[in-house]
Amino acid sequence: MNLSTPPSAVFPDRLRRAREYRGLNQAELAQKAGMQPSAISHFETGTRKPSFDNLRILADSLDVTTDYLLGRVEEFKALAGADRLHRHYESLDGSDRKMADELITMLAKRAEEKGKP
Amino acid sequence: MITTDPYAFATLVAEQIVKGLGIVTLPIDPKGIARGRGIDVVAKPMENEGVSGMLVRYDSEFAIAYATHHQNEGFENFSVAHELGHYFLPGHVDAVIAGDTGSHASRAGYSSGDKYEAEADRFAAGFLMPRHLFFPALEKAGSGLAAIENLAALCKTSLHATAIRYTQCTRDPVAIVISRGGIIDHCFMSEAIKNVDGINWLRKREGLPRNTTTSAFNKVPTNVLHGVRIEETSNLQHWFGGRRSIEISEDVVGLGRYGKTLTVLYDIDVPDPEDEEGEQSLMESWTPHFRR
Ligand SMILES: [Zn+2]
């Protein structure tokens, strides 16, 4: 098991930093992301945990990567790269592991293409 | 008796998403909805049994892979909806990532003790069988196993998942039992049957009551494998103990390669306590009293 801070604990601070850097207040970001105005403050105080769907929309609205909001990288637009896989990865059988690897490669290619100006 | 379900919110989240999408007819198409969200959905090759589903992430790009070896559309829909649960449920980023990004694999069904797995299963049930569409369908579905079969066909869900959802939503006293051999694997009771006084609740991992149709059914392995289906009567006491000898219905079906049996106990017409008392005193007034 990994002892590092869970992503949802890093997220509130990352969200606030990215929002302030983009010069948006909470209401402006909420509007951009199509969320309730209170949602952003709940996220930033940590009273509400994000889903992947939330993260993706917020990352898009702030022009940062999801990896940044999750504390996986230090720069706004950086990608975490070819990551090691999740906690169950070791327990996947060979064919599932191969399939997961192939999907990651495909998604990585797409993510990097989207990142290009 | 008040039962609070710690995972009920996961069902609610799913139902709100379906409502939000403006979906007004069954079945729900989880693959289509995922693709509409920009999530790739890919079938695992048939010979690749392994996990029932995986959610794979690379930054903001997502893919879901689902197992196809069961050759059961209901099972596939449930697997995809379960992965959507990991995608849509708050806090699941911690379960999936746990320090390393990548993918999340899910084991099938209701057996996992993991909190996140339980939440994703509840999400899937609510997603494929949301109350605002499931309730009206249930009213028209009939009763017993036939009702569950009708609803499963309508929702394109497995008999197993549909049966569980049925007990959560029906107003009738109904119980479903999933068994393997002589053992109750798990069981679900509707609110109405939980409120019946003087019966013992069914417990998982207990032996099947011996003098029941299900018990006899499970002694013939081909019944399970070939999906044999029977409708029988039983007695409330055989299943639930207590002092009332009341005839009830017991429908049984083998779940095929899944290796388990689904039993539906229904038509449980328990007189309410006041009528019972009335009957009791009426009986007493009829019964000649002999003084010793
Ligand atoms: Zn899962």
Automatic annotation (TrEMBL), chain A:
Keywords: DNA-binding. Residues 15-69 form the HTH cro/C1-type domain. Coiled coil: none annotated. GO terms for cellular component: cytosol. It holds the Pfam family HTH_3. InterPro entries: Cro/C1-type_HTH, Lambda_DNA-bd_dom_sf, TransReg_Diox_bact_type. One of its GO terms (molecular function) is DNA-binding transcription factor activity. This is Helix-turn-helix protein. It comes from Sulfurirhabdus autotrophica. The lineage of its organism: Bacteria, Pseudomonadati, Pseudomonadota, Betaproteobacteria, Nitrosomonadales.
From TrEMBL, chain B:
Residues 37-165 form the IrrE N-terminal-like domain. Coiled coil: none annotated. InterPro entries: IrrE_HExxH (IPR010359), Rad_response_metalloprotease (IPR052345). Gene3D superfamilies: 1.10.10.2910. Residues 271-292 are annotated as: Disordered. This is Uncharacterized protein DUF955. It comes from Sulfurirhabdus autotrophica.
